[in-house]
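User: Sequence in, structure out. Go.
Assistant: Echoing your sequence, followed by the structure tokens.
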Amino acid sequence: MDKYKVQDKQGIFFQGQIFDDPLFWEQIDFANSTLEETRFLGVGKLNNFAVIISCYTERNGRTRIINARITTSEEEQKYENWCKQFYS
């Protein structure tokens, strides 16, 4: 996957590393998708440190990141619990 540059209002800056996380998890964002555009929520670790959630879409063969932020403690716990299935 190509590298992406994002800097949001919280100052998160990354170049797509969460997409390179081997345990990157994604789902369709049904609440914000339309018939014309499917949006996804993705969760992964940034530099093996912070867990980031991002909203993105595929457009013209490229991934467009709409938003990215550090997860809440509840979201991070869900991600960690999901990852445990691969370490058990």
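User: And one key feature?
Assistant: The first helix runs from residue 17 to 20.
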